[in-house]
Fold each of these.
Amino acid sequence: MKNKKKPAITQPKNQLVITKNSSDKQTKQQIEFNKLTSRIERLKADIQLASKRLDSVLNVYHNEFKPLAVKRADKELEFAALIDKKSQLYKLTNSQTEQVRTIILHLCNNAFVDKIPSEEQEELFDKWSQVSYKEEVKNIEDATKNEFAEMLNDMFDMDINPNEIGNTEEDIAKFTAQFEAKLKEKYQSETSSNNKRETKLEARKKAEEQLLSKNLRNLYLTLVKLLHPDNEIDEQIKIEKQEKLKQVTVAYENKDLASLLIMETEWIHAETDHLNQLSDEKLKLYNSVLKQQIDTLKSDLQMISMHPRYSEIPDIFKHSKPAEQIQIIKMQQTIISEVSTNIIILSVLGQKTELTRYISKTAKLINDIRDDFGLMAEFFEMLTRK
């Protein structure tokens, strides 16, 4: 039996390739240029693919998961309120009261993940918790800020004060600007030195940056002149140039050399061997900025799942495959069904012995599976059966 060949993975086509002449051997800078531009194309394709996948996950989350999660939270809070009401009908022992506390706080904590409590629901939580709901929220926010500050400290070796991180979008934007300023200041202080050798290196680096900036600007101005819509009579081509001009401006602002070179090749040197004519000196300069662009793209790819657009998606859902997402959604449906059944069961319990037995059984099950969301459906199913 012949082994079936695995389908080949389609790689993005590199539009910036320095071709090898039959008589000439490619230089080191030409080879590196081809490798770097190819890497950039792959990274851009990976980012586009990752964004597309996360957009799909976000769509499923909003349309299928979130409505069920809110419905599940409502049922859990209804169940918690009923247990609270039933517990007031009889005088319970200290042990039984603690069991009621365990059940109610467990249900509330689960529900509050997907639903902001009403004033009445917040009062129910405060009644049974040693820490109020508002204090609990503040504690979680402070812990999150501390973790975030520690992460930044580890990554950039900088002393970040968690108290500087606000809660509103305006506060976060302000903190981001301050952090970037600190990072820039740190970088400048590390690179500055009185050492003559370092001063020479800095001067050379500055000269290279100025030369690169000049090359980028010249490239940008050349494209702007060529693509200026006022120079075009044909309306269709005029619209096309207007759109392309926007892309040129964005690429220039982002110092995206690869994109500028692609557009230059498309519009100016479409029928010439332009890239082959670039000198090694210019290629070396271009290669340095291409390496920086690769580092930026790699960072963007790693951080894409942390983009604010996807922040509301739970990690268990964000990083799961479509088949796993279906199972998570089914789990929500099962929990809703089982909680509804238990509300009915609890409603008809009339004797104290029946109620205390039910409370004891429920508290034991919660302690057995505490903090494991994956077992929540099983918890309510076992509660129904026993």
Amino acid sequence: MRTEGKWTAGLAMAIALSWSGGAQSVDPKGAMIAFVEAVAAHARAAEPGFGVFPQNAAELGQDPGYLATVTGIGQEDAFYGYQGPGKKTPEKATEQIESDLDRFEAAGKLVLTVDYPFRNRNKPVFSRPVRKKIDRLYSLSAERGYVPYATVLNLDWLTMNPGHAPSANHGAIAEWSQVTSFAYQLQPSRGQSRSGFLAALGAAGYDLYVLDYSFDGSDAEAFTPAEIADLKAQCGGKLLAYVSIGEAEDYRWYWNQAWDANHDGKPDPGAPAWLGPENPQWPGDYRVRFWDPAWQAIVFQYVDKVMAQGFDGVYLDTVDTYEYWERHPSKLQEARARLGQNSAVEAPALRRNQREP
């Protein structure tokens, strides 16, 4: 049985050898499994109980090491949203998702489901048909041992669903197994202040929150350790920091505008080798070759940031990016043309944002 420390070192060495060798061979699915395990090992070397929750790609739970590593999983669209906000997920898709999620639940992992029964992407409207959808998804999720939440697609609203509002905590949530409710809000609602945003979360009564490490996504507006501590004290629950590990976001602390200066969605000459094309469904988000050690170093630094803030764990999004690279094997090789040309652009960005020891 491999130890976390040995696994991290072995993974880094294997990937580095792959990039330096003559012919590159990458198994995207296996590489993502290894990456999530490496993120967990990195965090738990400093904080053994740190939570790791990948979002989606529940099929990866077929790997015993992956299943043993994660604290739980977040799953979108199990019942609504798979084909668009407000739309019922096709039965076959729901059945497959449930089959994959049941593997986590049987292993004693916390399973969080987030569905999008509202057609409006920014504000929930509780019409009678929508309430029926909410009741249905809460019932289906709970009967399988999952913890459900229904909200808007843009995740900019703290949704209190009628008939399913959480009960106020009478004691701090000490164990992940105690979580019976959660909410997921990455951006403040329109016009909501920083203090108003934090106060609303603290008063809502959910056991667990998934939120960004920053009020507006920038490093300048990152929540302070004192704010995170106050929020945890007010809500009595646990906090997960959202971190995208399969895509790079052009408003984050690590981004350099020179990487796509003309904003055509394609990395410019001199961009880091790990940077791939923009995701057309989410402008400003770029797929990454997540097995590249340089990208992984950025993610580890990101994890260090949220740990220093006082978050209880990370909520890892875009884990399913591995599917894109499986569908486009020719793009795995495109980075080789940029290898050795990116240091002048990439290194200053990392140095500027290096966390003080």
Amino acid sequence: MIKKSNNKSNNKSDRRVNKSHSFSGIDSFNALGDRAKKFVKDVNERARPKKGAKVKRTKIAILPLLGFEVAVATVLDKKKFEIIPLDITEKNLTEDYGQELFGEWCYPLKLTVAMIEKAIVKDHVKKFIGYNINICRYPLVMGDMTKWVKKDFEYYPVMFKEIGWSTDSCIDIFRELKKAIPGFSFMEATKKAPIALKRSLLAGELTNFYFKHLPLVSNPLFVKQDFKKTTREFILAEGVEESEKVAKAFMERVEKQVVRKKPKFKFLLSGDVSVIVLDFPIFDLDVFLAKNEIELVRPGFPPTVYHLRYANNGKKAKEIISKVLSHKTHKTEVSQHHVIESSTIYQILEGIDRGVDGIIFIKPNMCAPCENVSYILKEVKSFGLPIVEITYDEHQGVNGIITRLEAFINIVSETKNRKMACSQNKSS
């Protein structure tokens, strides 16, 4: 006969311990299952982003060309990608970055390499979407940007089959994005091609409005800063309607600052493509001219192959280039190797048709096609307009350029006054 123990524990903790070890086999299995379920639930809760928490996005950069940036941003998933802005005009770029670039390369290439390396080092960008216009050798080199930037990054250049904006050019961009972005749906992107095209064309209208109104406002520098912020908002806007709102708001702000009806002069900016489609890296050329009440006429994106072949000014440009570059014993046939020369002369002829008063021709050092254009401009007297040529590189001082521009403004003013006097004499 087993005697019952009269020793009862007064320790509550002991009783809890004994109770915890008194599970039956089924109870222990169920308890273990509950614990496993709780463990899985906790893991999922930790993995799931909390409400209001920012999801880490991949940083991506697009080479700065407003229409191109807009087209790419139209089909990027903003929840997955953070678009980092690039600025080729940032000071001291080539002093701190782009040191792997060597040899006789032009300053725009050095700036582009330094700009990309800075974005990798400082902004931690890992993926770049670039473009290849195929009109000079430095965009061709950009197809192998890893040759110059010794960092961990991915670079995807988009090759434009035809210079200019169209639905087909947008689709070409999306086809290249398929290679750059995992899980990118090309079919879904093509449905947005009309939206991308409308936004890109609207970006062109916004840029034209900016340059047309800059010399009419009281504070051009303030308007330029506002324009940079606006273009950033425009790139990130969703759809055509939101893009139109951003553009309209900017235009309304600028119109409130207009203090004069029209500029004194109009100058055509020609030459280096990077200066025309981006900005002059030495100083604020547009602001300087605007303070002198001068409208800077930018050709925008280079003319299409169709325009160079079949438009009247395209044919004229071809004739001028062939005539000037031909020798007595050899005739120069204008081909695809003369795209920069053809584009520049075409833009000058277009500027003359738009009634410009003078031409600013900007060329970087070490640019052979621009040297050809410089030779053509000196030989051809039929343009009938004052022309100033500005050569620049990383060693170029601002004061020298400003002095030349001030002298050029005086020449244009005197030329215009003489023409007005002659026309008045004829009429009288």
Amino acid sequence: MAALKPTVFVVEDEALIALELVDRLQARGFRICGQAAHGEHALQQIPTSGADIVLMDIRLAGRMTGLETARRLRERCDVPVVFLTAFSDGRCLKDADEVGAYGYLVKPFQVDELNATLRTALNRHALERRLKQSNADLHRFAAAISHDLRQPLRAVAGHLELLDRQLHQNPDHGVRERVQMARNAAARMDAMIVGLLEYSSIGEPAIDGQIEAVPVQSSRAALNQAIEFLEPVTTACGASIVIDGDWPLVEVDGSDLVRLFQNLIGNACKFRQVETAPHIRVHATVEGRDWSVAISDNGIGIEPRRLDDVFGVFSRLHGRDRYEGFGLGLAICRRIVERYDGRIRAESKGENLGTTMVFELPDVVVQPSEHVQPEPER
């Protein structure tokens, strides 16, 4: 059975050029599903045209440019756009990238260039759709597994609790100890499932730097909220937290940012030296639109050869008898940072020499704020 021909919608306001494009496309095995000379007409027709791809001039007659047309089109349907332009300056190409163009051709161009650019864009779009579908399936699978695994665990825990109550009336310390061990094991398994579900629910890493738009968030407000959530922990261990540096408005989901701070500062409290109160410094730096945060502590440190190991799923450098947890916290932090095309790393000179966790988020700063002098919070 012959493969279906890809369908192209052409948006070009010069009739002779549009006619030539149609002839070239048909000669290369494409099917034309529609044409428009103005952005307004294109927006009306493309969503219902069945187009696999749109070939659009950047400069169009009428009130809307090709760039604005493409921006609005993304809000209505998932169709890749390849731009035509007579200009190849950096500003023009940057504008095309910002509206999510899948490619652009500078006039005049050869028919082989047109064919290759369109087919490359179609292949990329098909891969991205499969990736999105795969991610959606993974999230549904994780939710189903979470429910199906936690249901019998709840039943086991419930029966063990009833058995524990009965044994309390007729004590047999050996049996009660084994029952308590079983209850603890069930609770750990339930917590692991919850952690995995949290890990899988975090937004996917950016594709070519493009992520869904997020509201502007005060980075300092997110930090304050995380510290407020951690107050029982910081009070119990006598932690002191010093905040300084640059705390701008950023395009980062607020819940992601709070979770990031909560995990990193929580770890600084957890992995403290015996009989030593944690001293934590949170320092932020802005360079252009890039933002980085370093969280330093005076804790137990990390062997330099193990610095990369701490970000793996279920990665633990210490036994559960010393520190509780399942090795998911830093894996979640890495997943959050990578969602924004950022990087995270650990720095330490060795055992009992403290640790610094650094995350860097590119192109997220919306409005810089004043520099904050060292300010003790606890």
